[in-house]
Amino acid sequence: MSKVSIFSPAGDYSEVPYYSGKVSAGFPGVVDEHMEDSLSLDQLLIKNPATTFFARVEGDSMINAGIFEDDILVIDRSQHAQDGDIVVALLDNEFTVKRLKTKGKLRLQAENPAYSDILITGEHQLTIWGVVTGLARNF
Amino acid sequence: MNNQPEKIYALCDVNSFYVSCERIFRPDLADKPVIVLSNNDGCIISLSDEAKALGIKMAVPYHEAKSIIERNKVITFSSNYGLYGDMSNRFNQLLRQFCDQVAPYSVDESFMCFEGFKEDLVKHCQHITQELRRTLSLPTCIGLAPTKTLAKVANHYAKKHKKSTHGVIDLCCPQQRQWVLKQIPVHKIWGIGSKLSVKLRHQTINTAWDLHNADFKVLQRMFSVNMERTVLELRGQPCLNFETMPQAKKSILNSRSFGKAMTNYYDLKEALSYHATRCCEKLRNQNSLASAITLYLYAKKNHQDRNYQYQPQITLKFTEATDDTGLFIQAIEQGLQRIYSPNIKYKKAGVMLMGISSSTGHQSDLFVPLKRRPELMQSLDNINQRYGKDMAKFASLGFSKKWAMRANSLSAHYTSRWNDILTIP
Predict the structure, then answer these.
(1) Distance between start and end Cα atoms, chain A
(2) What digits encode the pLDDT tens for the residues B46-84?
(3) Which residues does chain A have within 8 Å of residue B312's beta carbon, measured at their own beta carbons?
(4) Do B372 and A18 lie within an 8 Å CB cutoff?
(5) What is d(CA A80, CA A131) in angstroms, rounded to the nearest whole number?
(6) Which of A38, B268, B278, B341 has its CA 20 to 30 A from that of B16?
(7) Catalytic residue among A14, A40, A47, A61
(8) How many CB atoms sit inside 10 A of residue A128's CB?
């Protein structure tokens, strides 16, 4: 069953005319012409938005690199990891954040003397998920 | 002789898109059977290859497959459209880095058009699929051809033969095209549904190759001009436009089934207000105004008569087109009062906006007070984009969401909520 009826909005709205026109005062245009975009942290931290993801740090394995628990990692997955980069890796299908070392023996290095290096041997399956390109922290 | 056409179309689509999205942040699910359920956890709408191998089929109601799912410990997700939408955007952004003409076709597939491409296009597309996998963890296939219809066929073939094609196949070469078209049943061709394919089979047209060879003038008389276009496209003559900009929608619809049946007037009003809010966001997003709203309710089986279907609906027209959520919510109250009857168990509610026009060229009547509050709507959209869906909303949406769908196995909003992002040790 279908009914059609005419509805005209009644009530408060229609009784209060609303004007959206611009009001000009002073010398218009001078400021407008010199407008620039405000600074944005996105612009600073994210080079490639399509391939950038965020993740929260758990634990203290990277404290000497200035990465603390609950910090937010900015991970760009389009970057190709180089020796010395801080990376998010998949080690046997589990996520971990470490420094990648490719010179000498391939290994993942923690930035905390309490943790030893993880040597990547034939038994491990290592995939570099992305390169950590930035960090965000709220105090 | 170089028979490479000047314009080459590519169709890139993501294999098992929803499942692939779920796997991005759950690498432990890489080789496991995984499925995703539709709204309200109703039907199976995406399956991993491992789940398909168990004999689970697409579009089957969850309860029918429940025993196989439980027996084989198939990992099941409710649909997480926030995540899929975000990954779909990223997918298209990435394609645009490799091709300057990209036309999204659906959430998980996009056409690309390469003009005067001098290098090896198959190699280029293989690189695209590798990059999509490396940077977004999305497994994809690409079909290349001189027309969009053939690109669809090529993509379908590449998907069915991932091993031999490595996910990319080029049907620009006529011999290769003939070989593939002979293997494709006619109902798999873009635009030929199961209904049309039955009629075509009566004409002994069973494969894509049969249709390619058919007399299109005869078919055009029997069917429509679309059929003629399909035949020509299969022969390599492009007949379909390439639209890189999505067309503004002529009507905007939002509807959902309820988690459990609803009878209360205020619960229904809340649900309808929610749908109107979503519709208005889409409306403003495409810079349009609407001049009418239809609300409808759906009640399935009534306890007295099992086959009885009750679908009350009402259309309300505005004197002037608007994009103001508040006005649509007022209309809902007026409309619902007229179609609501108590003691009926409603299963679903929806809202459709119609009479869509562009807001940019809109002339308002000088003598009618303006029925829009663009600044207010703009602020509302800004707040919600910034701080999350419905952080600022009309009170009619309520706070109980009693009508909300079942989504018992929803994954985290990894890319859209700070509290949900991945944690990494």
Answers:
(1) 59
(2) 999 999 999 999 989 898 999 999 999 999 999 898 899
(3) 1
(4) yes
(5) 7
(6) B278
(7) A61
(8) 16
* Residue whose structure tokens are 């459990």: B260
Extract the tokens encoding B81.
Answer: 């459209």
Token duo for residue B299: 């009640």
Read off the CATH number of the domain in which A69 is found: 2.10.109.10
Q: Is the pLDDT of residue B367 over 60?
A: no
Q: If we measure between CA atoms, which residue out of B145, B81, B144 comes closest to residue B108?
A: B81
Q: How many other C-beta atoms lie within 10 A of the C-beta of residue B116?
A: 7
* Closest CA–CA distance from residue A72 to any residue of chain B (Å): 9
C-alpha pair distances (Å), A108 with each of A100, A105, B269:
5, 10, 56
Six-digit token string for A59: 């634990």
User: Which domains, and CATH codes, for chain B?
Assistant: 252-397 (3.30.1490.100)
Q: What average pLDDT score do residues B337-365 get?
A: 80
Q: Are B88 and B102 in contact (CB under 8 A)?
A: no
Tokens 């010395």 label which residue? A84
Tokens 């960090």, residue located = A135
Closest-CA residue in chain A for B309? A1
Q: Which of B304, B216, B189, B294 is nearest to B251 (CA)?
A: B294
DSSP state of B362: P
Domain count, chain A: 1
Tell me the per-residue pLDDT of B207-256, one tens digit each, with 9 for 90 and over. 999 999 998 888 888 888 888 899 999 999 998 888 766 666 778 888 88
